[in-house]
Amino acid sequence: MPRPTGRVLTLLELLQSGGTRTAAELADRLGVEERTVRRYVEQLVDLDVPVQSLRGRYGGYRLAPGYRLPPLMLSDDEALAVLLGLVAGRRAGLTTRDRTANETASAKIRRVLPKHVARRLDTVLEALAFTDRPGEFDTPDAGLLLTVADAVRHRRPVSIRYTDRGGRLTERTLHAYGIVAHAGRWYVTGEDPGIGEDRTFRLDRIADARTLPGSFDPPAGPDPAQRVVSGFATAGYRYEVTLRIHGTVEQVRAHLPEAVASVAEHEPTAGQDPSAERWLRVELRVQQLDWLPRTLAALDRPFVIERPDELRDLVLALAERLTSHARRV
């Protein structure tokens, strides 16, 4: 009886996905008995694939750590998902500094695709359109990105050389909590133990990174993504703006997202619908005020400007211009 090569390759694919798989789990996925799974494992070992057998209650099978499989086995849907991800990443600017890596990776996958899958992919890409322009952002070095990611995972301090907005180069130590992709850029957020405060750094402005001895405990509270957007909303800029807006949180967030403004949500009074419109306190810090009058007009909700007075003057000036234009025949 010929060997069921297809099932052996499926077993290899399951092990390639990572983790330890029990014999019962593999038998169920392959539709065979556990003793057949053991025979398939032996066939992989005969092919010099380092499958490890782990005994005990939580035992099973796994690939040896660090082993790189020669073949990359993807289903039709998996290949399509990978290539669409590469296209979307290139459009959003979320690539490494070697911009050609995205294109060469796409080309390598496309070369080994069956013709019918390649035709399906071409059909999707020809029909796909984007409402925004391709990303033109600075991107991080791949080695630096991996170094910082390793420090995040193992909770190790990392030393970085960073160039700030003013062009000043400094060397800092960071307890990195996480890496966040936001608005087409890569950021790392964590605590600067030298000053005992949280900081967020753009990865493309980091010239060098190296892990340091020791470890740290991550703090409780918001996750890294929430820390980044909250940090943007409270960053130190020229103007501190405080508004009271009558509406729902969803209405306000549609024009003033978390990365721009903080919204104080007051508890509704007894019997009031939690999603009902009510006065909300909105605070933000901005370098320029000229865009805010247009945003408040687009929001189309009752509002009160508490500060600064310059914003009130700009809103009145916009209202006068609109009134003057509307009266023209």
Automatic annotation (TrEMBL):
Residues 4-63 form the HTH deoR-type domain. The keyword Secreted does not apply. It comes from the Bacteria. The keyword Iron-sulfur does not apply. GO terms for molecular function: DNA-binding transcription factor activity. Signal peptide: none annotated. PANTHER family: PROTEIN PAFB (PTHR34580:SF3), PTHR34580. This is Helix-turn-helix transcriptional regulator. It comes from Streptomyces sp. Y1.
